[in-house]
Every structure is written in structure tokens, then in C-alpha cells.
Amino acid sequence: MEISAALTAILGAFGLSGAAGLNAWLPLLVVGGADRLGWIDLGDSYSWLSSTPALLGLAVLFVLDLIGDKIPALDSAVHAVGTLIAPTSGAILFAADTSLESHLPPTVAVVLGALTAGSVHVGRTVARPFVTATTAGAGNPVVSTAEDGTSLVLTVLALAVPILAFVAVLILLIVVWWLALRARRWVRARRARRAAVPD
Questions:
Q1: Residue ranges per domain, the chain?
Q2: pTM value?
Q3: CB contact set of 14 (below 8 Å; sequence gap of 6+)
Q4: I need a labelling partner for 85 at 20 to 30 A (CA). Which of 26, 109, 124, 160 fits?
Q5: Which residues contact 172 (CB under 8 A, 6 or more apart)?
């Protein structure tokens, strides 16, 4: 039973970290709220996530990110900041979710969380300029909304059905990086075409 609980916690932690790669603040806010309502137990080490100041601060940051990521000129700055924030969020979530149920060393949990969230975030950041260029920025709010929705679904799955969250993160990583590679090829091809056109 203890092994099963540890495995469940680790799988859920991957789900939360993947969600943080899409929206760094949303899973922190949901997890903090769930702990506050007694739906989950983060333990003493991470109970600060459910404190009133933390929840209010996370709510404000979530709203700012939610709006900023929908604006084409501003989303690049949001993504740049997210390069640091997303891995940090992923690390906190992974460590918090595994701290009570698994015997995973905290350092390993932090590294796994940071790598998972960071990989998802970098992939979406690389792909976003492709969306901006091909839709003149009109597609950015749509993609951003889809990312937010996926982050919420992953967070809920991580708390309710961890195995599904883990599988979803694996699929997400494959899709995001495939799109990122396609976007990079498109950008290179476009530059090559421009360079081939005489002035």
C-alpha cells in the first residue's frame, strides 16, 4: 500500500509539474486552494501554499499572467519571465506532492519538477513565434487559452487520477516539442527564402 501511495504521488507530481509548464500560477493556486479546503494534505512544509497571503498573491499573479499572455507584444515578456518561474513552480509542486507519500529525496523531486515544467515551457515558448507570425498575432489568445485550459485539466487529473495526468504529460511533451521543431524549421525556411530574394 505504501509503494502504491508513493507511486501515485510521483505520477501526480509529474502531472502538476507539466501543468506548471503551461501556466506557472494556476496549479499552485489550485493546489493551495485544495489544501485550504481540506481536499488534500500538503503537510507542514508546504502548508504556506494554502495561507491567505499566498492564495491572494497567487490569484493576482495568475490574473496578470492570464491577461498578459493573451497580448501578442506582451506575451514574449511573459514567456521570458516564465523561463524562470515555470521550473520553480514545477519544482515546488513536485516536492509538495511527493513530500508526504514518497521517500523521494527532496533534491530529486525539485530537479524532476523543474525539468518537467521547464521542458513544457521552453517547447511552448519556441512554438509561440510561429503562431504569432502565421496569424499576425490573432492566434495567440486562442493558443494561450488552450494552454490555460490544458493546465487546469492536468492539475485536476493530477489530484484525482494521477496515472492519467502522467500519461497526458508524456503526450503533451511529445506534442509541444514536435510543434517546436516544426516552428523552428518554418522560421529557418522563411529566413532562407528572404536571403535568397535579391534586394
A1: 2-196
A2: 0.88
A3: 94, 112, 116, 158, 165, 166, 169
A4: 160
A5: 18, 22, 120, 150, 154
